[in-house]
Automatic annotation (TrEMBL):
Origin superkingdom: Bacteria
Keywords associated with the record: ATP-binding, Ligase, Nucleotide-binding
Protein name per UniProt: arginine--tRNA ligase
Transmembrane segments: none
Naturally occurring in which organism (per UniProt): Streptomyces tamarix
PANTHER family in UniProt: ARGININE--TRNA LIGASE, CYTOPLASMIC, ARGINYL-TRNA SYNTHETASE
């Protein structure tokens, strides 16, 4: 059962409560968010649906949570429902459901490839449609940030094309920003959704907005290569200073998170090559005991959407670091050891390793960073 499946399950519980006359809300929300439990939570997944409905229903959130809990306990695949905090619903799946969820997750990642996590949520929201202006002379970080935001927004269905320069009377021109080469599959400019930028200017009937970021405090282009430069500019939040160069020049996992992410991707591809030499390929046939890695992969679509909505590529970068750490802690279990023969367990772990590498490569691509197969 995927987060999307659980979201539909919660919505069905809401509709049942409304139909039973227990929740008096005029409209059922089109979607509810299902995510990993936060601090103080429990179970496999959590939702704030009760808090979302409390206002329209004119009821305390915990009372709404109790109403929904009664209707979720008999849902297929759900073993337990707990209420925590002000009214969060924490869902624990049945063991067999968790195994099936892992199988469906890995299959989806392998089928969708680097586009796993892409969607159309922002393309359906016309109020998000604005353009970003990249002024002539914009610093390296502003250009990199705008391109990354554009790529994230495009991944969530928003049309994208950024304008550069200024015409007379403060009008943005239609020239595309071309200061740096965009990564494959990414366009340098964007008609962008979800803008929380400043500096609005009229542009062809739409608002042209400008992102803001703390300028680099050193010559990043001179100090770092293309990948390290992108990471230095995008890994910190826009209101923080860019990363210092020295750690990004050290090719060690302890000091350089970018190296960790790229190394994890390279290791995933090395495992595929090694398995081929041993005569087997990946196939998720049985449950794999890798909860942190499975959780990171399942969270990837929500991370992409949140990063796009908030114009925050740093969120994606942090998620890739967490995914890489989870994978590197898991990778040693993938291949047979000694005289051990490849089994269903090995094939399942290999499929999960392949999926992890795919997510890392897709995320790096959105940030304009390469994902080498060899390091």
């Amino acid at each position: 059962m995927t987060p999307a499946d659980l979201s539909l399950t919660v919505l069905r519980a809401v509709r049942r409560a409304v139909g039973d006359g227990v929740l008096a809300v005029r409209e059922v929300p089109p979607r509810v968010v299902v995510e990993r439990p936060r601090a103080g939570g429990c179970g496999d997944w959590a939702t704030n649906a009760a808090l979302q409905l409390a206002g329209p229903a004119a009821l305390p959130p915990r009372q709404v949570a109790e109403v929904l809990r009664e209707r979720l306990l008999d849902a297929p695949g759900i073993e337990r429902v707990d209420i925590t905090g002000p009214g969060f619903l924490n869902l624990t799946l049945r063991p067999g459901t968790r195994a099936e969820a892992g199988r469906l997750l890995v299959r989806r990642v392998r089928e969708e490839g680097r586009r796993y996590g892409y969607g159309d949520a922002l393309g359906r929201l016309p109020e998000h449609e604005v353009r970003f202006l990249v002024p002539d002379g914009a610093d390296l970080r502003l250009r990199a940030l705008t391109r990354a935001v554009v790529a994230l927004l495009r991944s969530q269905g928003a049309p994208a094309r950024a304008t550069g320069g200024q015409a007379s009377g403060g009008q943005a021109t239609s020239a595309q920003a071309t200061s740096d080469q965009a990564p494959a599959g990414q366009v340098t400019g964007a008609q962008v959704t979800g803008a929380r930028a400043t500096g609005d200017q009229a542009t062809g009937g739409r608002a042209a907005r400008r992102l803001r970021a703390v300028p680099p405090h050193y010559d990043v282009a001179a100090a770092l290569g293309p990948d390290a430069r992108q990471w230095a500019l995008l890994r910190p939040a826009a209101h923080d200073r860019v990363l210092d160069a020295a750690p990004l020049l050290r090719l060690t996992e302890a000091d350089n998170p970018l190296f960790t992410v790229q190394y994890a991707h390279a290791r995933s591809r090395a495992l595929l090559r090694n398995a081929a030499d041993l005569g087997f390929t990946g196939a998720y046939e049985e449950e794999v005991d890798a909860p942190e890695l499975l959780a990171a992969l399942a969270d990837h679509p929500a991370v992409l959407l949140a990063a796009a909505r908030r114009h925050a590529p740093d969120r994606l970068a942090r998620h890739l670091e967490a995914t890489a750490d989870a994978f590197l802690g898991f990778q040693h279990t993938v291949l047979p050891r000694g005289d051990e023969k490849p089994s269903a367990a090995h094939r399942s772990r290999l499929a999960l390793a392949e999926a992890a590498g795919t997510v890392l490569a897709g995320g790096l691509s959105l940030l304009g960073v390469s994902a080498p197969d060899h390091l």
